[in-house]
């Protein structure tokens, strides 16, 4: 398997949209209810680029199979060295190390930008993501009970964090 991690561009948005919308419609990984539009994703990419926040993609043998990004944890100046990330892998390409490669690159980029902490927000039903983040060095720091609601059920959210600098 040849995996290429690179910055995302506008031509990648349809594949990114396919990944996101499947997750929105079928999982509690993302607490949105409605599928996004291509215009939504275009605006997102523009905002990310304007804020110097990365959006990266993973291509496996020339096919986009995942993406990752991070952005501000909170919109107050005191949080400027903390970012929250997202990594999504296409449903047909799980358990191949793609998420790990994407997260490793996001961590590298965040360190290069002088970030201090990276946050992961994980739905507690998503044990795979929780274990993945622990394997990557993230530590659980908060458990918010019933803060989300989707598919007729209350959802718990866990925050994990990774120190990026000494």
UniProtKB/TrEMBL annotation:
Entry keyword S-adenosyl-L-methionine: no
UniProt keyword annotations, A-Z: Acyltransferase, Transferase
Keyword Transferase: yes
Coiled coil ranges: none
Family matches, as CDD domains: NAT_SF
SUPFAM superfamilies: Acyl-CoA N-acyltransferases (Nat)
GO MF annotation list: acyltransferase activity, transferring groups other than amino-acyl groups
Origin superkingdom: Bacteria
N-acetyltransferase domain residues: 3-163
Protein name: N-acetyltransferase
